[in-house]
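Model it.
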Amino acid sequence: MPFNQKKRPKEQVELISFFDIFFILFVFFLVTSFVVRMPLQERILYIPTPENTLGRAQIVVQFIDEANVFWLDEEVSSLVTEIEENYGYLSDTRLRDRIFDELFNQNVLTLEELDKKLSELRLRANQNPDLEYFLLIRCPNEISYFRVLDVITAISETSFRNIKYGCVGGTFDEIRQCRRIYTVVEIDADGNRRKNIRIDF
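Modeled.
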């Protein structure tokens, strides 16, 4: 006499787990594609902004460590121009090192000095609503994220919301070891010539 086989219910695919896996893979794809694109977009960095819109300056705040930042704004173009004129006979590598050393000596700020710079920037932005500023914050992974939030909070307290910002990952050594730092002359929308700093990574 044959044994009666118990009928087992057909196993169904759990759609909830499937959607969870799909969502995780989708997020992973977005993050990795963004990380891959960022180095390509950041091979060249202009200071001030490459759009050449008058009244719009690009400021780079590079975190070095928990206590110091490297501040670059449109004022550094005159310093780089002077070094290029005085030491143009140097090889590209030595000229880059000379420029970097001068920028390092004059533009490394403590967090207290950074707060003062941001306060001055905020004051200028509040006094003239037509001025727009773009602040690029570069931060290595080792730095506590609340340091970046402090900067964002400081520049967000403007009356006209005319300080915009972007955040990217990046280390101070990447700037130190860049291929070249030099000035380029560009024409803005009004036909005015202006000098920008260009950093080739």
